[in-house]
Amino acid sequence: NRIQYLDLSVFKFNQELEYLDLSHNNLEKISCHPTLNLKHLDLSFNAFDALPICQEFGNMSQLEFLGLSATQLQKSSVQSITRLHISKVLLVLGDTYGEREDAESLQDLKTQSLHVVFPTGKEFHFNLDVSVSTTVSLELSNIKCVLDDNGCSYFENVLSKLQKNSRLSNLTLNNIEITWNSFITILQLVWRTNIEYFSISNVKLQGYLDSRDFDYSDTSLKALSIHKVVHDVFSLPQGHVYKILSNMNIQHLTVSAAHMVHMVCPSQISPFLYLNFSSNLLTDTVFKNCTNLANLKTLILQKNQLKELINIVHMTQEMKSLQQLDVSENSLVYDESEGNCPWARNLLSLNMSSNILTDSVFSCLPPQIKVLDLHNNRIRSIPKDVTGLETLQELNLASNSLAHLPGCGILSSLSILIIDYNSISSPSADFFQSCQKIRSLKAGNNPFQCSCELREFIQSVGQVSSDVVEGWPESYKCDYPESYKGTPLKDFHVSELSCNTALLIVTIVVPGLVLAVAVTVLCIYLDLPWYLRMVCQWTQTRRRARNVPLEERQRTLQFHAFISYSGHDSAWVKNELIPNLEKEDIRICLHERNFVAGKSFVENIINCIEKSYKSIFVLSPNFVQSEWCHYELYFAHHNLFHEGSDNLILILLEPIPQYSIPSSYHKLRALMAQRTYLEWPKEKSKHGLFWANLRASINIKLMGKA
Q1: Which part of the chain is the TIR domain (predicted)?
Q2: pLDDT in tens, 122-134
Q3: CATH C-level class of 554-705
Q4: pLDDT, mean of residues 173-202
Q5: Tell me, which fold does domain 1-129 have in CATH?
């Protein structure tokens, strides 16, 4: 913003205010007001001439962070806050700082962390004493000393005063522009202080380095970090710099983003426990045949120019204590024909992500590996014949080309598996049964094919703890088929019947078998095969009849009635029925005298029924026991419905109890229930009327001849 003036009394009604950031404005003056609960107050990067410290600041006992800016420092300016114990103080010095400088102005501060930002772009000609007695961590930014004939004498003088501060353990130099000689001198100065952790970042080095010895004795330094170095490659005294760095008697060394093309092996057994040379230009020859890194536990070679994995394997062979190796973001490849891989035997954690490794890498892994990162490579599967992974606990295979979710048959100790962003469409449903020790699975963002196989996996996910499957359900969505694309797996449902082939077969076959059995039983019970044959013959006869002209068919009507009866009732038919009907010039068709020899019984029945005006059935208990009588009744009844005429006459000779009619004679049951029948009277006085009614029902003039 562009605030130039602020009266802190505007916050008088905000008594609970704890955080106030007014940095990067144009403040030149502030009017103070007690804000006792402030914990964070930032007035840095403003246009103050003197330190903007009010008397009221001395009462801010809760203050943890204080950011200030000024162009001049006076010891009296900080008196009001010398009683406060502030965790961190940020002091930004303006462009005109140095004209009126009080070197001792900061000595009475009580802070654990002090960050001083010197003017940008100015040569360092300051004498500010930053060795505040209470400071544990000191950061100095914007240090430039390349034009001074005496090197960085002013800055070296500032650093030399740090020796008297016994509490200072962390020193950070940021945004530095110095010569090579001054850089080595600064390292040597820090070496003799009580500083344990020294970090240098954003360094620009110029000039040449004079050959000199470096005194490694009497140091408290444990870790040196040099990050983001810019220098002239042609003026870099490579051999001398590498020698100084490699022989440092400290435990942790980081040189990253420094355009370093090589690093030599220490000249003697090194105390290095941790080496970080990430974002450089190192090649496969780094530390080749180096036997003096026996104490090294962690080596980071991320973002370099490494090519052959087998060379890295041999590099680690002499690193007896190496436990963690990071060679990610290189161009590593491995060919199985290169032979065995004699890794450091104690290597437990290996990061080979973002390389060009394929499935063959699984035959080149450390024997005791516990943590393996292979994400962003070209791996398609884990070979089934892989051995030696029994100790592996954490495996990262994200961003590869895996098509299947690996089981834990060869990964018996696996507890963490990261396999997202692959090509897995149908993960195995028995994964959690195979991987009993798994406590974290990250398999989202794969092209899941929502099918029956996936349904079983979804069910298995629901049976484990929600903490086990990371990213569920938001990262698990259907990719295929199109109708389900984008659907969360938890919302994908398909029926058990659609997925269970055995159940589907049972569901279809069992009812089919039941139906077949039922049809078979009905066929046997109702004699359906006979009916089918009879219908077939009837159909053929009717087809032949349709080919005969109507007048000719009328001429073929030769009888007034066809009589169907049981042989047991033949006496009544011959003695009573025939004589009483034929005396009136009525023609009767009887099977024993009118059936044509050579034709089948069925065909004779059909012909007689068709040539007769009516069909008379003499019903009695004997009739229902006759199979042929039933067939004759069937054809006559069929003709009744086919012709649409009333051609059936039923004569009840003797009463027939319903229970005596077989169930297969359902047509007879139906006819007796639906149609009126003539009952033969026992009284002789009624016989005349009976015959008269019967003759009247069949009396018709026939065109044909008998």
Answers
A1: 557-698
A2: 888 888 888 888 8
A3: alpha beta
A4: 93
A5: 3.80.10
Residue with tokens 């012709």, as numbered in its chain: 643
Residue 680, both tokens:
């033969």
- The Cα 218–Cα 524 span in angstroms is 112
Contact between 211 and 238 under an 8 Å Cβ cutoff? The reply is: no
Query: From residue 544, how far is each of 36, 537, 539, 600 by CA, in Å?
Result: 120, 11, 9, 16
Contacts of 426 (CB under 8 A, 6+ apart): 404, 448, 449, 451, 453, 454, 457
Instruction: Output DSSP code: residue 650.
Output: E
Task: Quickly count: other Cβ atoms within 10 Å of residue 101's Cβ.
Answer: 16
Specify the pTM: 0.72
d(CA 504, CA 369): 47
Q: Are 400 and 378 in contact (CB under 8 A)?
A: yes
Task: Estimate to the nearest angstrom the gap between the alpha carbon of 631 and the chain centroid.
Answer: 72
Within its chain, how far is the Cα of 406 from the centroid? 14
Whole-angstrom Cα distance, residue 639 to residue 538? 9
Q: How far apart are CA 508 and CA 505, in angstroms?
A: 5
DSSP string, 269-337: ----SEEE--SS---TTTTTT--S-TT--EEE--SS---BHHHHHHHHTT-TT--EEE--SS--B--GG
Sign of the alpha-carbon dihedral angle for 428, 430, 432, 435: negative
Where does residue 486 rank: exposed (0-12), middle (13-18), buried (19+ CB within 10 A)?
exposed
pLDDT digits (tens, 9 = 90+) for 296-338: 999 999 999 999 999 999 999 999 999 999 999 999 999 988 8
Q: Is the pLDDT of residue 634 over 70?
A: no
d(CA 138, CA 115): 6
For 638-659, letters b (16+ CB in 10 Å) and e give bbbeeeeeebbbbbbbeebeee
User: Quick check: 569 and 504 in contact, CB under 8 A?
Assistant: no
Residue with tokens 């997202």: 420
- Nearby residues of 377 by Cβ (< 8 Å), 6 or more positions away: 352, 353, 354, 355, 356, 357, 358, 361, 400
**Which letter does DSSP use for residue 55 in this model?**
G
Helix axes 501-526, 528-546, angle to 10 degrees: 70
Look up residue 524 and give its two tokens.
């046997």
Using CB atoms within 10 Å of the CB of residue 585, give its burial: 0 to 12 exposed, 13 to 18 middle, 19+ buried.
exposed
> Two tokens at 194?
């009580």
pLDDT at 497 over 80: no
φ, ψ at 543 (rounded to 5°):
-65, -40
201, amino acid identity: S
- Identical fold, 1-129 and 554-705: no
Distance CA 675, CA 673 (A): 6
Count the Cβ atoms, other than its own, within 10 Å of residue 393.
16
- Residue 618 scores a pLDDT above 50: yes
Please tell me the distance from the alpha carbon of residue 478 to that of residue 493, in angstroms, as a whole number. 12
DSSP string for residues in 548-587? S-HHHHHHT--EEEEEE--GGGHHHIIIIIHHHHHTTT--
Mapped to the 3 state alphabet, what secondary structure does 494-531 carry?
CCHHHHCHHHHHHHHHHHHHHHHHHHHHHHHHHCHHHH
Please name which of 332, 350, 358, 432 lies closest in space to residue 391, comparing C-alpha atoms.
350
481 upstream amide cis, omega within 30 of 0: yes
Strands 298-300 and 324-326: parallel
pLDDT tens for residues 452-464?
878 888 888 888 8
- Which phi and psi angles does 93 have, rounded to 5°? -95, 130
Token pair of 23 as six digits: 């940095």
